[in-house]
Amino acid sequence: MRRTSASLVAGALVATLAWASSPSSPAVALEPSAGVADLTQDINKILSDSRLTIARAGVVVKSAATGEELYATDAGKLLTPASNTKLFTSAAAAETLGLDYRFPTTVLSSGRKAGSVLAGDLVLRGTGDPTMLAEDYDALAAKVAAAGVKVVTGKLVTDDTWFDSQRLGNDWSWDDETAYYAAPISALTASPDRDYDAGSVIVSVAADGDKVKVSTTPETGYLKIVNKATVGSETDVLIERQHSSRTVVITGTVKDPYQEWVAVDDPTAYVASLFRTSLAKHGVKVLGPTVTAAAPAEAKELARHESMTLGELLVPFLKLSNNIHAEILTKAMGRKVANQGTWSAGLKVSTDFAKANGVQVINMRDGSGLSRRDGFSPGSIVQLLTAVRSKPWFTTWYESLPIAGNAERFVGGTLRSRMRNTPAANNVHAKTGSLTGVTSLSGYVTSAEGEPLIFSIMLNQYLSGSPKDIEDKIAIRLAQFTRATATADATQLRATEQGEAGDLECSWLKPVQC
């Protein structure tokens, strides 16, 4: 695979076949064993942490082997899931679009070609590919030149009509508007690197003698850079795009190199700038202006780029908790099912999928969990995680979840620095979720006796620092679970080895790689 290190996943997945070998068994009424009683006592003790005194905590643990509920508190309460929402979006996408789904990006001609002159318009049409890089648009431009086109007498038309024109998600906070993890959603977009943070540009600063040098990845003149930074004895710099503009203002002092991921204001216009520059580089001159419109029905294809498959995309999407992938997939589902590339159509697909698989408590406002009006119960999350085990795409999806304590970035993902050197390491496969005052962890773990367990932990409305260590302690305790009487090794119930970077999903806090 050209783009991601998904192949790294295979060696870390010891329990994959066991997890995917059979669908969940129906619930079996069993007398609580001494081990279950011990588990209940230990989880209650973990949840008695003073940081949760004023907070809300919902936890459900279920045996995938017997269907037995091993632990539950507030199982049916509606809680804010943060990025646990991506469990629903990714599963619905795998079911609806299929693991072989690809996003095509095409270049079309809408006029008559005479020699090297295209008497008409050149159209760039997108379907939402979040993996498009500047080099991919450059390759499309090279194909146009290779087709013999040197002059376009008409316009450069950008067709982003595969999705609607609503760029920002429902209920997204206004002060996230310039953040790359809340970038605008468009059917034409570009990513700066192979994390595929579509709709953003990396802005870098470095001391260059007595001046601060600014560069961007990719190189682009789309952004207007206002550099007010100075060389200093430390790096204390702010790189921030002004709201609803292309202007990026840089202030503070720079000693060591630093970079920031910045969302562009208009992904379609940004892509048009990249593509026009590449066309010129390859000797293709477009005489007319750039406009945004639908491609004429009679337009003919000149060049095409196909994205990686959805099965491959699940790795950067889920491992790194990529918000933009979630929203693009949501609109792509809406387009496929209802021929409407909208949030409302796509969210209906995800909600219908969840309900068809037994989920009772669900309120989806976006695909990523950035909205604070998203709501699920821990019981509903466990129900989804139970139901998808029988799906033909489950193994690929399961392997795409972050794996606790595995330092490989595209294996451990957002769990790579958590639960290291504990029974949960390379065992827990789960989705993280973080917003200010919200944290969640839901997924799968194999017990000390080899019993597959499904769990969901949702903590809301705390005022302390992030209590992710509480999630870790519960997950580690589940990895130690036996049905016989046993006391958990308290020394193993430790939290993250490396400190969490604030309250947001750690992978959202670039350039921090926690």
UniProtKB/TrEMBL annotation:
Record InterPro entries: Beta-lactam/transpept-like, Peptidase_S13
SUPFAM superfamilies documented for this protein: beta-lactamase/transpeptidase-like (SSF56601)
Keyword annotations from UniProtKB, A to Z: Carboxypeptidase, Hydrolase, Protease, Signal
Gene Ontology biological process terms in this record: peptidoglycan metabolic process; proteolysis
Enzyme type, top EC level: hydrolase
Spans traversing the lipid bilayer: none
Family: Belongs to the peptidase S13 family.
PANTHER family hit by this protein: D-ALANYL-D-ALANINE CARBOXYPEPTIDASE, PENICILLIN-SENSITIVE CARBOXYPEPTIDASE A
The protein's name in its UniProt record: D-alanyl-D-alanine carboxypeptidase/D-alanyl-D-alanine-endopeptidase (Penicillin-binding protein 4)
